[in-house]
Amino acid sequence: MSLIRDIKPGIRWVGAIDWDRRLFDSLIPLPHGTSYNSYLIQDGEKTALIDSVDPTKLDVLVGNLKALGVENLDYIVSQHAEQDHSGSIKMLAELYPDAVVVASGKCKELLVAFGLISEDRVMEVKDGQRISLGSKTLEFLLAPWIHWPDTMLTYMPEDKVLFTCDFLGSHLATSELYAIDEAAVYESAKRYYAEIMMPFRQIVKKHLARIMDLEIEIIAPSHGPLHNRPAFILNAYLDWSSDDVKNQVVIPFVSMHGATKAMVEYFVDGLIARKIAVKQFDLTCSDIGEIAEALVDAATVVIGSPTVLAGAHPHAIYAAVLANALRPKTRFVSVIGSYGWGGKMVEQIAGAIPNLKVELLSPVVVKGYPKEADFRALDRLADEIQARHRQVKLD
Ligand code: FEO
């Protein structure tokens, strides 16, 4: 059985839906699966495939090409060397020995390094370079660092279709070709942005500005549904990548014997009473994708940790390291938590976030279980956050 979907005359989706995948990069949870979108362009003269699929789904892609009677590929466009898009190129190149792999210089280097293709099979393209397939043109737009240095986008001016690889995509397995259920797609796309694109926010803005000048009817990413209403995903990206933060506090925390948890619960109620939105995550059972997503907009992050082995709890360090890697636009950070006989919990957490351009607000660290004076200190921290948010005009 094959699943092939028409996008425009001569342009088809021939990829694979991965309903059951639950982890990416041995790191990122995929609660809704994903898809590897591969596109076949058949024009009068030439045939091109844009991106392949994860090697685990090679049989699906090959089955689709066989079902369409594709006996020859002139070009295999590799927009990005990561294996979920290029891992099948080695086998495709054997199956279609006349195919030329089209890639950016950096992508060529990586494809060769990964053992996916030999150098002589790759045609390196520059920014703005075009290949004519007959009546259709592929124009390559080099877009480094969304999210690897090799990434390029492919624009078809006659059909007004922009293939964006990971950019503007989502890990979402769905039977719908297009983003029809925009609420569901928004959620998945935001999570995807947080995990994959947020560390490159300033570069995202630059590439967004460039594609805003193109006439686009369809955005065709390499994961998740396509967009036949491009403004939906473009506006979302403009918002997420902007410098604006929201009146929100994210609180990733861990507690061993209940003291830090009691502080978090009191503190969260205090923030809510001050009309500040809160997202609280127990690090022992939270999905890190949800934490990443929460970091997209929040003005403030407060990490909650007990003291263990003279330092922060490893789960709290993990949250700090994660935030540091994702580089959210957070403005303020603080730490709350507890200790028994001392340690360097706050210093460890603060030292784990050098990438964040944040102001550190007064931490609240208490000995043992929190007492009246400790709750007053939490009140003062909540007041300080409210004041800071007001200073940056968030409420
Ligand atoms: Fe979907 Fe960066 O690969």
Layout: helices, strands, pairs:
Blueprint: E1 5-8, E2 11-13, E3 16-18, E4 23-24, E5 28-29, E6 34-36, E7 39-42, E8 47-50, H1 58-67, E9 75-77, H2 83-86, H3 89-95, E10 100-103, H4 105-113, E11 122-124, E12 130-132, E13 137-142, E14 152-156, E15 161-165, H5 182-197, H6 201-212, E16 218-221, H7 230-241, E17 246-253, H8 259-273, E18 277-282, H9 288-295, E19 298-308, E20 311-312, H10 314-326, E21 332-339, H11 345-351, E22 359-360, E23 364-367, H12 372-391
Parallel strand pairs: 8-9, 9-10, 10-11, 15-16, 17-18, 17-19, 19-21, 21-22, 21-23
Antiparallel strand pairs: 1-2, 2-7, 3-6, 4-5, 7-8, 12-13, 13-14, 14-15, 19-20
Helix pairs in contact: 5-7, 5-9, 6-7, 8-12
Bound molecules: MU-OXO-diiron.
Residues 80, 82, 84-85, 147, 166, 222-223 line the site of MU-OXO-diiron (FEO).
Description:
- With 395 residues, this protein is an alpha/beta fold.
- The protein has 2 domains: 5-241, Metallo-beta-lactamase, Chain A, CATH 3.60.15.10; 250-387, Flavodoxin domain (Rossmann fold, 3-Layer(aba) Sandwich).
- It contains 12 helices and 23 strands.
- The chain has a 7-stranded mixed sheet with strand order 1-2-7-8-9-10-11. Strands 17, 18, 19, 20, 21, 22 and 23 form a 7-stranded mixed sheet that branches.
- Helix 6 (201-212) runs antiparallel to helix 7 (230-241).
- The longest helix has 20 residues, at 372-391.
- The chain binds MU-OXO-diiron.
- MU-OXO-diiron binds next to helix 2.
